Amino acid sequence: MRAGLRVHVLDKSRGVSGRAATRWIELEGKTLRVDHGAQYFTAKGANLRMILPELVGRGVVREWTQGLSLLTERGIEARGSPHPRYICPDGMSALGKALVQGLEAGEAPLSVETKATVQELRRTAAGWEVGLEGGAARAGQALLLNLPAPQALKLRGEVFQPAVQEALAAVRFAPCWAAILVFETLPYTDWVGLEIRHPVLAWAALDHTKRNLEGPPVLVLHASPEWSTAHLEEPPEAVLPPMLEAARQLLGDWVGRYRLALAHRWRYAQPTVLHPWRFLAQDNLVFCGDWCGGARIEGALESGWAAADYLIRSLQN
Fold first, then answer.
1. I need a labelling partner for 253 at 20 to 30 A (CA). Which of 119, 228, 286, 288 fits?
2. Global pTM?
């Protein structure tokens, strides 16, 4: 129960958090946790700043770095206006898990059903019904869809009003190829994360600097939106070599001395054309996400909170 309402969460993955994703890698009897999706979050708004002390106090979140430098082919350049970037030592997916469990005293965990892929929406006399992969169905008085707008448009069922369909169709996303490299050792570096201005790469992070437990060094790379778009349909084994060569040229020959290298494609990584408001509503069918009014993790949270407030008021009237 939240706000006096029974909430049931459906997630097509094995766990919650979406693109705030943590990859678990088994290597020589040890399990590594690597953030290959969202890399960090900021807390600039009052809503997130209000719950941040509780998240920090529980050990779910800690500050990772204040500023991020820019790497170009000319070298590393310092950037101004430092502000805290926060991470989850157990992986970025821990943030979503903590919110599902509840932060306030006496708050019950949400009911979560994983590996539940919604394929169809149906309007009913009592509200909404969703058809799942495999033929099962779930029903409720209201329906909140937190997924990229292009994926929402692919759901079966002629239920969207023309204005809603038009708003969803106007949203645009850029993809991102991510690479994970595990090393035996690394040379000394004076950075933990770098924004990169380069035709191939846009980001590099030393993921092991986020963890509380000792483990092997891990480098995470994100390709640029333009390069990812051009190579979107290629297999991982084809995109890894040019990403690693670009990293070697920018960071040094040590990049080539990895023990393990993996690639992951995010088809809907970053919204580039956003819906102007915090959520999109069709009566008690509501859409939210980082494509509504503000990108990144904080934007997604603000969108979800705004959508929840709308639904609570709507259902109470």
1. 228
2. 0.94
